[in-house]
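S1.2 Input.
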Amino acid sequence: MKTLAVRLQWARTKKNLSQEALAKKAGVSQSTIGNLESGLRQTARRITAIADILEVNPMWLSDGKGSPEPAHGSSRAESVDAERHLSEEAMIVAEAFDLLQNAAQKEAVLTQLRAFGVLK
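S1.3 Output.
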């Protein structure tokens, strides 16, 4: 499983949870889960909580490293590493993007990012 999107969808399906149910348990919006599963987002501030709910290794979920099985004894260190992929500001921006109300607003932000040369 090469991407976070594929790993997340696989783990969520295995636990028989809807996107909405997982989001509620993890304390994120359903759109956060949807954006992760669609590949629009590459990480989430609550990736450790999501991994814990899905009972998978947070480093596997985040990066595809190791096995999906949670590591006993080292999961907290792995959890901290998984959450350090983005700066605090980047995570805030990603979460704010998820709060936008419609596709036109999201597309306007993406258009600006393309204009800055940070998205293709």
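S1.4 Remarks. DSSP finds eight helices and no strands in the chain.
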